[in-house]
Amino acid sequence: MVPQRAGQKRKVVEVAQAEAEEGNGQLEIGAMNGEFEGDGEEEDVVSEDDSEGEEDEDEDDEKGVEDDDELASDEIPSSEEGEEDVRQQLQDLKTSNAHDNVAQSLMGSDTAKAVAAIASDAHVKPFDDDDAADVPNYTITTDANGNPRYIYGEIDPVYDSDDSDAAIPGNTIGNIPLSYYDAYPHIGYDINGRRIARPAKGEALDSLLDSIDIPEGWTGLTDPATGKPLELTAEQLETLKKLTRNEAPGDGYDPYPDMVEWFTGKGKEEVMPLSGAPEPKRRFIPSMHEHKRVMKMVKAIREGRIKPYRAPTEEDREREEAEQDFATYDVWATEQSRPDHVMNIPAPKLPPPGYEESYHPPPEYLPDDGERQTWEEQDEEDRDRDFLPRDHAALRKVPGYEQFVKEKFERCLDLYLAPRVRRSKLNIDPESLLPKLPDPAELKPFPTTCTTICRGHEGKVRSISIDPSGKWIGSGGDDGTVRVWDILTGRQLWKIKLSKEEAVNVVSWRPGPVDTCILVACCGETIYFLLPQNDLCTPETEAKSRDLLDAGYGYAATAPTPTKTSNGATKPSLSSWARPPTPLQDRGCLLTLTLHTTAKTLAWHRRGDYFSTVSPSATAVSTAIAIHTLSKHQTQHPRLRLRGLAQTSCFHPLKPLFFVATKTKVRIYDLQAQRLEKELLPGAKWISSISLHPQGSNLLVASYDKRLLWHDLELGATPYKVIRHHTKAVRAVAFHMGGLPLLADGSDDGTLHVLHGKVVGDLMVNAAVVPLRVLRGHAVVGSLGVLGIEWHGREAWCARGGGSA
């Protein structure tokens, strides 16, 4: 049931006669009159509605619109045959496609035509407008495929309001710019969905303006929402005129008010428009409600129900005592200055200005041209003052100081960063800060004093070595000689001159059993294999040593043919094994190995058959490292693919591992598997020497950046411990190879540090490093101190060679 729209009126209709359809039977007039005779009162009501117009709309809302079944039951008599006939006629009238125009005409004044189709003079109750709302607003046609198509009519809303002040429907496009509608004849839509036509522009608008006078309020502006000319009221135009003339737009504003003399009057007393004094009591007029509340409180006080003063109880006393125990103080309660702390330091004060800062200083304080130029060329930090004295005739001619802000800022920094209280030094025992170390007396034996000095070299001693038997010390120096000394007495036992120009860089005894006595020396590009004379060796030892050195010649005779180049020529060898000249053989040199580069370091394998040499000055990285076989007189250059120049090398005592140190890294190679096993990152800028522990689990790395790095090969690639106790470069480091937990390192500062380094096989226990002794004695010559270190094979003896012979 659709409610009736407020304000909608009924219309008077005339009933016309309608033709009956064929096949449905004709409806006789007399039968209709007889059927509707009982509705005379309703006819009178209808006539009254036609004459008087619209009744109260509230009555219509209560009645509503009745269905077709209710209409038949209320207005048609109870005759069964007549009732069925009339009901069928009404249903056919409503639903028949042939009478669609009748159903559509049931709204407004056309309703009478539909009623006239039933009877010419029948009295019928007219339909309300709510019944017209049920009529569909569409027509049904057939599309090209034969399917039904619904065509809706245009919306035509009807407004029955008589309000003449209603706002003109505006454009409902919102914030969309009007430029989006430039290609369309309209500029938007109103609230009913109708298109808003574009206003006239251009020639049409000019012709229209020429034909009429300019209306009042015309501004020439366009409303961006509607596209029509924007009209302003007279008040708005007047406000715009005042704004363009910089006048006050408000009414009653006086830009030039009269001056109020606040300090005028008798005695020139101060008369202010506002006062902070409290309101006087004579102005207070209490309300009746407040008066009643006050009287209630007065009555309660008199009766004793409210006590203005209550005697403190025991709980109040306990609370006050607790507050006194933990009393708090208001730091801003008093403004009295407190005395400074006894350790207070006053803020630094600026010195008083002198003659230089005067605007008219004496002539002797004014700089000349040379001093001015020198001051300008100096950096700001090197100047003795931030300004130059200048002479001005008057104070008013003094210009602004360009460094004023900077100078005040630095002064604020001085005040902010200046100490305020003297702090006493902490009385801490320096010994308590050191870690708890064992007593060095408990870690003996270790070297403590210098017992033997071997003198004889002309220049620096670059390398020393102790033979496996522990009786002799071999040394080589810048004078090109190799000398053998008695380890107990320091007496020279044997000497050989290898070169007049080249220095002996390395001397090393061949390890192994004591039945041989072979000393190897590197001088320039040649490696010499020496057999000391002067009855240092027994005939049996000398014979075995000669046989060991001569065994390689037989292997060289049966060696495979050398490789050849593409031209068929024999490829030159990078090394050559040969017998030395007869004079050298007579002095004890039995074999020579010639390289094309200068060998700086030499390291033996523990079996004594293999040894390696490192030549940092080699032109090619592949030829910098060479591994030699003494029993075969064979030299090999392993392709290790180093990233940097090789510095030194050593063999693992138990595994087929080969350690090679470059400037910054230590690389470990497996010679049997021919692959890189591990790479260590000491973090040093330049590695000078390495030493491997007898168990092969720890490595010491010395560097030129004054550090000694301890690597535990089981932990990782980074150092386990970094030791910094030298002031200059550390050139040599060595473990004790005889089983004692000792190590030593020498530096260019001329000192030798002896440390206790205990290494155990348990992986859960870290190595213990304890400094024992600092040995001095070598003089620093040419910025060089200790150059070589060697431990005795069994005793806690340490030999060193350095810059002073």
Describe the 3D structure.
- Keywords: Nucleus, Repeat, Ribosome biogenesis, rRNA processing, WD repeat.
- Residues 36-84 have a biased composition (Acidic residues).
- GO terms for molecular function: ribonucleoprotein complex binding.
- The chain has 805 residues and is α+β, with helices and mostly antiparallel strands.
- The protein has 17 helices and 33 strands.
- The relative contact order is 0.05.
- The longest helix has 19 residues, at 539-557.
Q: What gap, in angstroms, lies between the N and C termini?
A: 128 Å
SS strand fraction: 15-25%
**In which range does the helix fraction lie?**
10-25%
The strand line-up of the biggest sheet is 11-12-13-15-14
Rg on CA atoms, Å: 61 Å
Uncertain ranges: 1-80, 94-130
What's the tally of helices?
Answer: 17
Overall mean pLDDT stands at 77
Question: What is the molecular shape?
Answer: elongated
Number of strands: 33
* Structural class label: alpha+beta
What profile does the largest beta sheet have?
5 strands, antiparallel
Family: Belongs to the WD repeat BOP1/ERB1 family.
GO molecular function: ribonucleoprotein complex binding
Main location: nucleus
InterPro entries: BOP1/Erb1, BOP1_N_dom, WD40/YVTN_repeat-like_dom_sf, WD40_repeat_CS, WD40_repeat_dom_sf, WD40_rpt
